[in-house]
Amino acid sequence: MVTKKPTTIKDVAKQAGVSISTVSRVINDSKPVTNEVKQRVLDVIKETGYVPNPLARSLVTRKSNLIGVIVPEVTDTFSAEVLNGIEEISKMYNYDILLANTYSERDLEIKSIDLLKTKQVEGMVVICWDIDQELVDIIEKSGIPAVYISKTNRDFDIYNVATKNEPAARDMTNFLIEKGHKKISLMRTNYQISNLSDSRLNGYKKALEENNIPYDESIVKACGTTYADGYMAAKELLSSNNILDAIFATSDEAAIGAINACFDMGYSVPDDISVAGFNDVEFAKMYRPKLTTVSQPLFDIGAVALRMIIKIIRGEEIDEKKVKLPYRIIDRESVSDRNNK
């Protein structure tokens, strides 16, 4: 079997009876050619199925129509739903996405940034659990404009899209208190690279203070964001003879892990212990009991970030450098009302 060689720009030029530079001008719309010549070249391209080399084209137009997206874990449900928003907007504006999965490892983040630079991406969206000065400096040094999706943007002078994390955690903690819960454990994510305070922990503390409930460090547990992380953290909390009214996990997957740990330890959810999550990923409403959670507009976070980086690429004005999208408390089945007991 003979494999047919792909059509080259030289083949198109020969068949259309024009020079290679004329074909290039038609493809890139860089310099005017007559309508008759343009149509003849386009007809040959259609007939042969010729596909221009995107790298070669970008060298001429200085536009690759590529945007790099760096994610800490591509299988994470938060990242997956944010990526849906990124992809939808990229299609609308005819950009392609190059995805780099880093597992939150700094070496892989650096390699990914270098790789995206060689691919001549016009901009980057960086999804990261925690931003530090080193990462900001590395990205700025690359010369690639970037928008970050992270709750820990702190005081860095960067473009960032997130939810109002501190008030969201405060409202969820207040919601649990209003439902008659006082001994509320916080299972906070442990991805903090730096020692700076965590906004969701601050929100939790403020709600306790407002309701004259003492902060108990022994029931604040640092854990990862996965089901297994939540399961193990909840099991350790319950094995330490802690008598809890509720568990507030700052990840839906960890919250569902906590629900199963409660059941395995002989507790009923929500009758004995209430459990709440954060993010409102798709399966939060499919699990039983359906998860009460803080709903972040994950699709919109991705969509807004992608639209922002396109504006930066095009030199368009941006109203806000740090965008904070609204959130909602979604009351489902995993939190009981103890006031009615």
Automatic annotation (TrEMBL):
Keywords annotated in UniProt: DNA-binding, Transcription, Transcription regulation
InterPro entries to which the protein is assigned, alphabetical: HTH_LacI (IPR000843), LacI/GalR-like_sensor (IPR046335), Lambda_DNA-bd_dom_sf (IPR010982), Peripla_BP_I (IPR028082)
Domain HTH lacI-type stretches: 7-61
Listed GO MF terms: DNA binding
SUPFAM superfamilies: lambda repressor-like DNA-binding domains (SSF47413), Periplasmic binding protein-like I (SSF53822)
PANTHER family found in the cross-reference section: HTH-TYPE TRANSCRIPTIONAL REGULATOR EBGR (PTHR30146:SF149), LACI-RELATED TRANSCRIPTIONAL REPRESSOR (PTHR30146)
Name under which the protein is recorded: LacI family DNA-binding transcriptional regulator
Source organism phylogeny: Bacteria, Bacillati, Bacillota, Clostridia, Peptostreptococcales
